[in-house]
Design goal:
heterodimer; A: 181 residues; two-stranded antiparallel sheet; 8% strand; B: alpha/beta; Rossmann fold; four-stranded antiparallel sheet; 39% helix; elongated
């Protein structure tokens, strides 16, 4: 009787110690679900979902506070991917947050720019280069097309432009008959 | 005795039998139209347009400026990154522009090009390399890399990269099995310049040091085979074998040719090097010969101009960058019923919309067709699941499944059916009784997947930049807060600090005075004065004293 209690007690202590150690040693800081959701979002950081960026939106989805259909830049593809990940039914994009458009970039009209730096402060990915009273310019390859720099501009010198297609990201069109599906 | 499954049986290098690859088609051959006549130099066009990306991998980086004069063989764009190839000026002339121009690509999109106004002098830049047999393989690879040599069979993979990746090479396979109907550039090359090919093969062999070296030709190119045999005899070369393979399309595909000769399969998503084989095109071998023995980088290639849309089909030796218009003119111009212009053969070629596009390193054939010889395909009908596509697929894929998934945009599923093992040979679409443009579906799916990957990488970078920005804003905020705390601390300490500071100033002054005394420093400009100067000083002193006294009395 006593042996059994001691044996089980020792076992409980040992296993408890191992589990306790593992919990500290292999501690995961962030919620892996948030990471997985974040990986599916387009990282435009535009805030159209009403959250302050893609990661806060991912956290809200993981917490069940936000729906999966609030990301216009991601569009149907992102909604489908999120639905697959979370095992729920996809739903159409919520029009309250905007509609899905082809990716664009912005360009600063350098003749008009007064160098106020307001757009630099607004850019979520540091894709605008410039200094006070100096000309500003957009690093087009880093621009996500969030358009957050447009409202702060006092002289309206920032314009939206389509992303030029290159040989690298061009893809063959689907044959005509499939496009009617 | 059975081999472990992960270790395939060693290659049979006796080549005593031919194997059969799955599927394939017997196609009517129309190679003779072009290769029965000697190769004709297409001459120097007034302008050459040289795209910076004529190969697989990173585009080359331009080294010249507009207005600069360049000589034949001069490097005008250097390789960047691991997989890349330089571009050389094919003749002497002046750089007219560096801008986006239409390039041979199914998209019809323009891409960065260097445009050379040729001067007709064809003045060469001087270069030289020592006897290659004395060179280490590594040095020889460097020569090939600097010469801008890429796979001339059509893929355009940088040759030096391919040869440099080898581990142990059992078989060096030189591909002369030009299987697509109508294309005859390799046939012409082997018929007329068999010796160049053999010399080139010797160089490649010196680099990879294989156990066996084989040149494969189709059994319907007897002239080429004979020419190679003759050249071997002439050069006294006994270490290279010329073998023929049955002319079944697409036996010229790398994987199919390896299967036919060795019976081995290149693993899915793998390379021939994984089973100890390096495969190179005959044109690439000839280019290696020119680079090493004649010190000439890749400046021209042989292009077949054929089809019933041109008057005189034949092979041309064409400077890279030559616009198709110039080439068509050299072939006697179009016939009246010309319908469209293709780059590549009738099975795998793609239509180009303008004849301003230039010949690049991978252009093997220009095909001008009439509606009669290549009518537009009838409208596609629904798939009737006959399975003929699967019967002819040389990659043993399930074209029907790929079709469904590609059409539905289900790219993951398409990849599960080994979409990327598809060589786009066109056999499935050729036999499809419903005339479904199957290959276009596969090309769409492949390129869409690549585009998605590019997008994914871009979003990863955006995430990183956004996180870096948030971290920076946070850091600045903390630094400001810390600074504020320090300032407040300093203010509250001010009263107590005043006396201490005065004391410190006095100490410092005292220190300076003592140092001056100990060093014996006195104002120099008051020594050794003349009596007049001394007098002036006395007067000034007197005036100052008077003024001070006056102020005191006021």
């Amino acid at each position: 009787m006593l042996t059994a209690i001691i044996a089980l007690g020792v076992l409980a202590i040992v296993i408890g110690a191992v589990l306790g150690y593992a919990a500290i040693r292999f501690h995961v800081d962030s919620d892996p679900v948030v990471d997985q959701i974040d990986a599916l979002l387009p990282q435009t950081q535009c805030g159209q979902c009403t959250y302050a960026g893609c990661r806060p939106y991912a956290e809200a989805i993981a917490a069940g506070e936000a729906d999966i259909n609030q990301c216009p830049p991601g569009g149907e593809v992102t909604i489908q991917n999120l639905a697959d990940l979370l095992g729920i039914d996809p739903k159409p994009l919520n029009p309250e947050h905007g509609e899905h458009k082809e990716k664009t970039v912005v360009r600063i009209d350098e003749e008009v720019c007064i160098g106020c730096t307001l757009c630099i402060q607004a850019c979520p990915v540091d894709a605008i280069l410039g200094a006070p009273k100096q000309m500003h310019t957009v690093i087009v390859s880093e621009c996500t097309g969030c358009n957050l720099c447009i409202p702060p501009c006092p002289v309206e010198c920032i314009h939206i432009e389509p992303v030029p297609k290159t040989l690298r990201d061009w893809s063959w069109p689907l044959p005509a008959e499939a496009r009617h599906d | 005795m059975t081999e472990a499954p992960h270790r395939p049986a060693p290659l049979d290098l006796s080549f005593s039998r031919r194997y059969r690859f799955h599927g394939g088609l017997h196609l009517e051959n129309c190679r003779a139209a072009a290769s029965d006549q000697p190769i004709l130099p297409a001459g120097i066009p007034p302008q050459l347009v040289l795209p910076l990306a004529q190969h697989i991998g990173e585009p080359a980086e331009c080294l010249v400026t507009v207005g600069e004069r360049v000589l034949r063989g001069e490097c005008i764009a250097q390789a960047t990154g691991k997989i890349s190839a330089p571009v050389h000026a094919p003749t002497s002339g002046t750089i007219a522009a560096i801008e986006a121009r239409p390039v041979p690509h199914p998209s019809g999109l323009p891409a960065p090009c260097v445009v050379i106004d040729t001067d007709g002098a064809d003045e060469a830049a001087v270069a030289g390399t020592p006897d290659y047999t004395q060179l280490e393989p590594e040095a020889l690879l460097e020569v090939l890399r600097e010469s801008g040599i890429v796979g001339l069979g059509g893929a355009g993979f940088p040759t030096a990269v391919k040869l440099g990746r080898r581990n142990h090479v059992e078989l060096l396979l030189i591909n002369g099995a030009e299987c697509e109907p109508c294309i005859a550039c390799d046939d012409g090359l082997m018929r007329e310049r068999a010796q160049d090919v053999i010399e080139g093969v010797r160089i490649l062999r010196h680099i990879v040091q294989p156990a066996a070296t084989v040149i494969a030709v189709e059994d319907n190119m007897p002239e080429a085979e004979q020419a190679l045999h003759d050249a071997l005899v002439r050069l006294g070369e006994t270490g290279i074998r010329v073998l023929n393979v049955p002319a079944i399309y697409p036996t010229g595909g790398e994987r199919q040719l390896i299967r036919v000769l060795t019976g081995h399969e290149v693993p899915s998503q793998g390379f021939p090097a994984d089973i100890g084989i390096i495969c190179q095109n005959v044109g690439t071998a000839a280019a290696a010969h020119a680079a090493v023995n004649r010190h000439e980088p890749l400046l021209s290639r042989i292009v077949t101009v054929t089809g019933d849309g041109v008057r005189h089909a034949r092979n041309f030796e064409v400077l890279l960058g030559t616009p198709l218009a110039h080439l068509i003119e050299a072939a006697g111009g179009y016939t009246e019923q010309i319908e469209r212009l293709l780059i590549g053969g009738p099975m795998m070629g793609y239509t180009v919309s303008t004849e301003a596009v230039p010949v690049i390193k991978t252009t093997n054939c220009v095909l001008a067709v009439t509606a009669h010889s290549m009518p537009a395909p009838p409208p596609a009908q629904p798939c009737i699941r006959c399975g003929r596509c699967a019967e002819v697929c040389p990659a043993t894929l399930l074209p029907q499944q790929l079709y469904w998934h590609a059409r539905a945009g289900n790219h993951d599923a398409a990849q599960d059916f080994d979409l990327f093992d598809c060589i786009e040979c066109g056999c499935c679409a050729h036999v499809c009784p419903s005339h479904i443009p199957l290959v276009q579906y596969y090309r769409h799916a492949k390129t869409a997947i690549w585009a998605e990957e590019i997008q994914l990488r871009a979003s990863d970078i955006a995430r990183e930049r956004h996180e870096a920005r948030l971290a920076r804003i946070d850091r600045i905020k903390q630094e400001r807060a810390a600074q504020l705390v320090r300032k407040k601390q300093a203010l509250s300490d001010k009263a107590a600090g005043n006396d201490a500071r005065q004391g410190a100033i006095q100490d410092a002054l005292e220190r300076v005075r003592r140092r001056k005394e100990s060093a014996g420093i006195t104002p120099r400009n008051t020594d050794n004065l003349t009596p007049e100067q001394q007098q002036k000083i006395v007067e000034v002193e007197q005036r100052r004293r008077d003024r001070t006294r006056q102020q005191d009395t006021d």
